[in-house]
Amino acid sequence: MTFGPHGDPFGGAPFGQFPGGQQPYGGPPIVTAPPPPAEMNTLATLSLIFAFVFAPAGAVLGHLGLAQIKRTGQRGRDRALIGIVLSYVFIVAAVAALVVWAVRPAPSDTTAEPAISGTTPPATTSSSTAPPPPLVTRAQLPNLPLSLDEVKRLMPNLDETYTATDTSDELNGSPGVATVPENCRPALFAGASEVYTNSAGMATFSRSVTSPNVDTLLKSGGVEERVMLYPNAAAAQAQADALEKLWQGCVGALTQTLDYGRGTVRYQVDPVSRAPGDQSIVMLKATMIEGPRGLDGIRNVRAIAAKSNVLIDLVVFSQNPGSSAEDITAAILARIPG
Questions:
Q1: Which are the contacts of 184, defined by CB distance < 8 A and separation ≥ 6?
Q2: What is the secondary structure of 45-75 as a DSSP string?
Q3: Please, where are the H alpha helices in the chain?
Q4: Per the database record, which ranges form the DUF4190 domain (predicted)?
Q5: What whole-number distance in Å separates Cα of residue 104 and Cα of residue 137?
Q6: Residue ranges per domain, the chain?
Q7: Which backbone phi and psi does 313 adopt, to 5 degrees?
Q8: E strands of 191-333, at which residues?
């Protein structure tokens, strides 16, 4: 991540550092080496990053970073504060977007009742065609994502520090975030508000699996499982097709600027592909090639799939994600009737 020198709240002298210049006279002059610069707090940096990835985690990391800075004297207090503020801004923006989304009239998928005839219809033989499975309801959405233990079974590198965080009817906002090519934030993050706010979506549920331990999180990664509810199967599939088309325009070098240009993260995005085990799962893989210390080389794997009136929107980030994104998506698909 790069930061400009002028007006940069993250630059300047370390907190508590004695100012440069001549020392007060107190006897013969003593030449001493300048104190080493204080180390930047990792939690503060991660708070700023996760504010744009998963705002609740960004807020938690920011508070943990402030406590650590107070104890160790590391640099990064301003960065942690900005991460906390942005996290709460994004949470509020997401809730506001969902309020607008919720009050929109839902598309009607009712069918006209057949006219009642005065004559008795002829008897028909039973058909072998089974009735279509019932559509998924809003109340059923929380039952679709895998539990913490189920995710751990598919990602055995996740240890006991990992927890699951559930959110209902919240999308991931993007104030202050821009990408080159444009509109490619959904290629990196699940539940992007710019994709779903004006869609036919009726409800959403998300389960994020992360660890508060920074070293563990950088090594083992995390998951966001998101399911979106639509009025019918056609609407869910149309949204999946639209996302796949958007992804096609994000292949290659992708630059993301954070906090209105204060920080930059660069990715190399692989071509859009299909999961080997299930061709209905669309995959997009990206590698971070320039970012905060400890995050270079992180793999970001996106997966989407539509079944019945549900769209699955998933992201896994890890140094070694393997087939976890495909495996988790396939397990969620198996829970959807149809």
A1: 246, 249, 250, 254, 256
A2: HHHHHHHHH-HHHHHHHHHHHHHHHHHH--B
A3: 42-53, 55-72, 77-103, 148-154, 193-196, 214-220, 233-248, 324-335
A4: 46-96
A5: 18
A6: 42-101, 139-335
A7: -130, 110
A8: 203-210, 222-229, 252-258, 263-269, 273-275, 278-290, 299-307, 310-318
Q: Would you call the peptide bond into 186 cis, given omega within 30 degrees of 0 as the criterion?
A: no
Q: Which amino acid is at 100?
A: V
Q: How far from chain centre, in Å, is Cα 311?
A: 16
The distance from CA 250 to its chain's CA centroid, rounded to whole angstroms, is 17
d(CA 196, CA 228): 9
The whole model's pTM is what? 0.67
- Longest CA–CA span in the chain (Å) reads 118
Do 274 and 281 touch, CB atoms closer than 8 A?
yes
Identify the CATH class of 139-335.
alpha beta
Which tens digit of pLDDT belongs to each residue from 197-244? 888 999 999 999 999 988 888 889 999 999 999 999 999 999 999 999
Element (H, E) at 166: strand 163-168
Q: Within 13 A of 177's CA, how many CA atoms are on the CB side? A: 26
Q: Answer with the residue of higher pLDDT: 64 or 249.
A: 249
Distances (CA, A) of 157 to 61, 64, 150, 154, 211: 21, 23, 13, 9, 12
Other CB atoms closer than 10 Å to residue 217's CB: what's the count? 21
Nearest 5°: the CA angle 138, 144, 145 is 120
Q: What single string gives the DSSP state of each residue in 73-134?
A: --B-HHHHHHHHHHHHHHHHHHHHHHHHHHHSPPPP---PPPPPPSSPPPP-PPPSPPPPPP
Dihedral angle over CA of 191, 192, 195, 200, nearest 10: 40
| 8 A C-beta contact, residue 64 and residue 79 | no
Confidence of residue 336 (pLDDT cuts 50, 70, 90): very high
Length of the chain: 338
